[in-house]
Structures are given as structure tokens and as C-alpha cells.
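Appendix C: a fully annotated inverse folding record. The material below is reproduced so that readers can follow the format used throughout the book. The structure is listed first as C-alpha cells, followed by the designed sequence.
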């Protein structure tokens, strides 16, 4: 194995068992050393460029407030349910790291506050978004994370963090104990792709007249209670 030894004013390419102390390097040795040094500098430069090109994923934690404080909320026997549509692009960027609104995806945060003596539960299957008689299903979480990851150059570790973050925000089947508040997000496609034309191809148009229904279940008695309909998506400014 060749060993490169650097001495003041000289560069030596030594072979095993051969020590060329005090010997002046040949022009070929000097050239090889210069080429190696150039390659090392180039590799370090490329690594720095890649590190700088990898974007940071910065989000803030979604606030958890009493459901009764939200404009779109209803109460029944000390149970409050609210929906918070994240229709502002700036809020979407802060909470999810990407402008989902501009891509036709509406995040909706469903909150349940329980001030009764019983346990109440809510699950994604009991949250229904409708336009007239048409039901709009929420998007699978992997489609949402893929959309967020496509917005910038993230390394593998950051991409995994994005998936973990969004999965943690999703609405799951949850039991809300007395004096507690729980929430979770569902992502709905709201871009109206049925409207065509040259003008519509350049300006995003969104589905209007959406109604969201939420059903909460008393985990102790089995009673089911519907909240809503909540009128959401009353015009979203994506510019």
C-alpha cells in the first residue's frame, strides 16, 4: 500500500519497506500529489454544496384550544366540537411546511372538548365532507407527505421527519376523557378539476358550498351525536 508523506518542500510516494528520506521528489510524484490534492478539494467542495442544497424543514406546533373558542363550533351537553379550516397559505406553511392550499389541498383540524362526566370518541370515518349529495373523501396521508416532500430538496432523514410529523397530526380514532380536548387533521382535495378552459387552466378554482359533518360517540352509553353541518371553504385566497 502506498503511503503519502509530506515533508517541508517535498512530497514522497513511499512503498512498503522503502523509506526515501531526504530524497527529492520526481516531477511525476509532484504531479500525482497535486492531482490527489485537487481531487480531495473537489470532493470536499461537492460535499459542501450537497449539504447546503439540502433544505431545512421548519414547522411550528399547532395550537390546542378549547373547541368552543373557534368560530365554527357547536356544543351539546358540555361537549363541544369545532372545525378549523387551514385555508390561509401562511398557516399551512407554518404547520405543514408547504403551501398545500395552492395545490388544492385543504387541511381541516377537528377538535373535541369534553366537559361532561362521560368519555366521548371521534374517528375519521365519522367526519364527512359533502357538496350536496356528493361525498369528498380525505386524502391518504402518503399523498400529503409526498406533496410536501416534493416542494424542496430534503435529505432522507428530513423526509422521514416530514412523514412522522404529518402522521402525528392526522385525526385518528380518539377517546376524549372528561375535562380534556383532543384534535386531529384531515386533508381534503378541494381543487375543482371539472372546470376547464384557457382561463381556468391558469387560475385555480375551488369547490364551493362544502359542508362538514362530525359525529361524536359517547363511549360509555353508545349515544351518537351529530355536529354540524359546518360551512367551510368560503373562498380561499391562494395569491
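Designed amino acids, in order:
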Amino acid at each position: 500500500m502506498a503511503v503519502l508523506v509530506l515533508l517541508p518542500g517535498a512530497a514522497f510516494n513511499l512503498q512498503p519497506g522503502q523509506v526515501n528520506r531526504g530524497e527529492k521528489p520526481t516531477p511525476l510524484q509532484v504531479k500525482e500529489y497535486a492531482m490527489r490534492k485537487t481531487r480531495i478539494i473537489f470532493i470536499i467542495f461537492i460535499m459542501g454544496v450537497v449539504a447546503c442544497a439540502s433544505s431545512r424543514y421548519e414547522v411550528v406546533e399547532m395550537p390546542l384550544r378549547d373547541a368552543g373558542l373557534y368560530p365554527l363550533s357547536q356544543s351539546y351537553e358540555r361537549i363541544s366540537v369545532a372545525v378549523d379550516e387551514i385555508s390561509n397559505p401562511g398557516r399551512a406553511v407554518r404547520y405543514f411546511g408547504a403551501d398545500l392550499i395552492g395545490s388544492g389541498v385543504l387541511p381541516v383540524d377537528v377538535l373535541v372538548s369534553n366537559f361532561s362526566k362521560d368519555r366521548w370518541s371521534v374517528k375519521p370515518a365519522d367526519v364527512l365532507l359533502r357538496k350536496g349529495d356528493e361525498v369528498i373523501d380525505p386524502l391518504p396521508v402518503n399523498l400529503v407527505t409526498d406533496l410536501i416532500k416534493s416542494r424542496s430538496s430534503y435529505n432522507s432523514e428530513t423526509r422521514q421527519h416530514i412523514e412522522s410529523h404529518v402522521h402525528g397530526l392526522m385525526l385518528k380514532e380518539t377517546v376524549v376523557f372528561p375535562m380534556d380536548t383532543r384534535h386531529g387533521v384531515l386533508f381534503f382535495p378541494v381543487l375543482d378539476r371539472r372546470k376547464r378552459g384557457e382561463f381556468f387552466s391558469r387560475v385555480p378554482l375551488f369547490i364551493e358550498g362544502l359542508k362538514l359533518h362530525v359525529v361524536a360517540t359517547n363511549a360509555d352509553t353508545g349515544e351518537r351525536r351529530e355536529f354540524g353541518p359546518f360551512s367551510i371553504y368560503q373562498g380561499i385566497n391562494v395569491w
